[in-house]
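Hi U.,

Before I forget, here's the chain from the pilot set. I'm dumping it here mostly so it's searchable later in email.
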Amino acid sequence: MRQSVLFPKTRKEAPKDAESINHKLLVRGGFIDQLMAGSWTLLPLGFKVITKINQIIREEMNAIGGQEVLMPLMHPKSIWNETGRWDSADEVMYKLKDTRDKEFALSFTHEEVFLDLVRKYLSSYKDLPIALYHFSTKFRNEPRARSGILRGREFMMKDLYSIHADEKDFWEFYEKAKDAYSRVFTRIGFDFRIVEASGGVFTDKHTHEFQALNANGEDTIYMCDNCDFAINKEIFVGKTGGKCQKCGKGKIMEHKGAVEIGNIFPFGTYYSERMKVYYADEKSRKKPVWFGSYGIGSTRNMGAWVEVSHDDKGIIWSKSISPFDAHLIELPGGNGKKVYEDLKKEGIDVLWDDREVGAGEKFVDSDLIGIPIRLVVSQKSGEKIELKERKSDKVEILSLEEVVKRCKKG
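Structure:
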């Protein structure tokens, strides 16, 4: 893509009200725009990042048997009354009435909608298990929307929901989902831990969060320095420096500033019994299904990545979620158009800075936008191309063929 036509242009200054790093850099880089507190537009660069995050998630959900659907965002009051959450989740729900005085809620989650859907088609144990997921907008009445795109009132999320005939099958799938989430966050590039946590308005059972480390987040977690044990501050009982209750060898360490990037919830039969989601087993006995919910905030993950991967110049994207494979900068005397077209023929997705501005401005914008590989063509480079990785100061002079190999390298 030609940078001269990219919408919008970068900004030199961050918004005055921006406190978090992701707010400052994503707005300055032209990835997102704020409509109002907690509500964001994904601009072309931001939408490309989210598309890549969603594709990684989609591939891992499909790999464990998930089927993609799309469920409604406006829900009738009656369906929330079945589980009692019309009242119990009142603090986070946006509610409204139509001209006929019928009451509705905007989706803050989709457990009830999923269960209503599957009970229409469920009869026998032979229909189980069922696992459906979708990418959709969520609306949550955050009392103070802040931290940029990390904590919004409207955001994009992937929810996976599954129902099972018995507890054994449920927990087997729960572990598969946990492994799939680990693969998602590993592919994105996060340093993360799986943390035991409270269920909040979703369940009174303990759940599992996936927390990105080395971030400027809001969460405090306690984790073992020897094994994978980790627990959220909300439910932690113990003290820093104490012996790990799991391995008995390591010490418990406090980690401040973690960012939640995903969570999974075991519901048992609580919701299915209230919504009468039953099936007939092998002996024709009526039984409630076992139910679980698994969420990843796509837009939250974009913000979390910026929090953990940046420097004083701008964002540093991982190759897997970068909006482009390479950023081509054309300086006087360089044949940018030919190199751009040659790279495109090789399947390299390139942002070509063809603007008539100074070299300094081009380099500053390149560092701010944060594409992993920067290419420079100029009179000095001749037939060769200068290559520099965003996270390195080393500059290499390479042929087109060598550049293609580096851009395609996993």
